[in-house]
Amino acid sequence: MRVDSPFLAAAVVAVAIAMLAIVTARLGRRLRLRGAGVSAVCGLAVAALATWLVCDVFALIPVDVPFAARAWCVVGVAVMCGGFGIACARAAESPAHAERRHFPVSRTLAVLASLALIVGATLGVNSVFGVVRTTEQFASTLAGSPAETIAPLAQPAASHAITESEWTPPSDMPSSGTLMHVSIPGTTSGFAARNASVWLPPAAQVANPPSLPVVLMLSGQPGSPDDVVAGGGDAVSVLEQIQSEHHGLAPIVVSPDQLGAPEQNPKCVDGALGNSRSYLEHDVIPWIQSHLPVASDRTAWTFAGFSQGATCTMQIGLDLPDRFASNIAISPELAPSLAGDPVATVSQGFAGNAEAWESAKPAAVIGKHTPYNDTTLVIGTGELDKVFSGYADELSGVATKAGIETTRLTSPGTSHDFNTVHYIWQQTLPTTLTRAGVTA
Questions:
Q1: pTM of this structure
Q2: 135-435 — its CATH code?
């Protein structure tokens, strides 16, 4: 069941308001006005002030928060405060005025209305950011997924990806892809990573799989590998559409953990916060080559990521042009960052070495390899994400001047959220087959 619709959120809130209306109808007129009106107005003012302070004054959330998300929070709190006022007024009624037999019903409706408002406001915010798309996804997140095992390949895959004209699907090929969670050990780097998410198209699940393209896909921070694959980014639905149109052929997707934990941000470099760069380059890439049927040619390899993961794309994907011919960066930053604080970033992430931080900036990485040859970059942002759109425009200019074939995409009506991620996947993942030569 889909849970990311604003209409579902509005319906839940409407039910909550209807419950409050029933409770209010049992009050005297003066008590209704005092209890509901005053509390709602006060709640609206406090919620609006708190939202403004958090999002604008102190910038505790380092991205643009869309008006719709703010509105859901403010209205939800205001109506809840109004309901609280009703409850207080109901409790203060004189025994002569109150119909005691209705107290249990009123109390129950008030509690249910409060719960419904919390759920409705949460669904409203979720509809803006697209974090959870279905109840199945939510249940899977709560339950967690055990690590599975992928055996090493008996022999290396071919250099070039198979073409669609060369491919004949075997009769026992599965009809859909499969999502797995596997442990990719940090043997060389010593990095303590969480399980990676790996999506295999039907063609990769047969006895003698063909050589396929691969997308190394990174989440944002805070986040987990599943976020961009099966979570809010929902690459899986796009990949399933691709494989259904191409006889089971689609890119293999590997989403490793470049963070170590949701609250950590090693910034895709080697440092005190963990050897994240070495893990991705010297542990993850060799693991992909030895365990998955991916073509070795650079045109079959794509580096992709969202937010912090997009900055990593600019830092690593563009720093390894001999490995990654294609790159997809969704809302990257101008520099690896700890909550937008350069001082803390240099101090904690680079041991006080400002030069190391400067050299890790995407523009500096691009400068090392200028001019590029046969390298593509897609930079995408949400239309409402003004800050990161500015970053993207600047980085697009730098990349274009360096000889990178750069495409700038904008997701209509979205911000720094998973709706943007899903839109960019829809626009870019199908092209990985063409880039690798699978389709014409």
A1: 0.83
A2: 3.40.50.1820
